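Hi there,

I know you've been waiting on this one. I reran it after we fixed the sequence typo, so this is the corrected version. Both the input and the resulting structure follow.
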Amino acid sequence: MQMTIDNLNISYINKGKGKNVILIPGWNASYKYFNNLINELSKSYNIYSLDLPGFGESSIPTSVFTTHDYALIIYKFMQKLNITNPTLIGHSFGGKTIIDLITTTDIEVKSAILIDSAGIKRKRNFFTKMKNYRYKTLKKMITSLYKGEKQEYLLDDLKKQLEELKKQQEAANSQKNNNSNNSGNNVNGGTDTSSVSPKTGYTNVLAMLMAMLMMSLGMAFFSIRKIKR
């Protein structure tokens, strides 16, 4: 199916009967990405899905589109088809568009389901904040003390170390989730021996604080040397 919104041809699909559900695909994706889900949900719901401008079979915009521009396309799409009180389901960029749509327009929705959505700022824990602080501090030291190839080499090495730390953290989180899932299967009062003791956590915090202190003292020392010169 096709309709025109703001001089753009918008490709969409409508299938099923019941309460309204709108599926919003992610960046550079077509509503056909949802084909299996559409076929299943249309057994119980009235399903709509569309190709956002520039994707799938919809027209390419003549100007650069912001997230809000895409949200307005969905808004006008709902108005044209008289879709009221829908459940919105968005994947990735589609989820980000839904967030903009709900927060910047007068649209009323029954619920919103965001799948691996962009636009959500995840809360960072203490250790992540300390790692970022350490990275920024070291980067500042390197750029102030070294130039040319030496600087590029050290910055590249620092970036690799950060990426490796991220991989280790992701692996640790994955292992922690697996241990949490497996702990429920323990029988005869068994305990999960993989948990980290509070003492270990305090040791890590102390080590990071000491590292930060040493880096701060190092920066102050080199700054004084540069001033004296």
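Quick highlight: The first helix runs from residue 35 to 41.

Best,
R. S.
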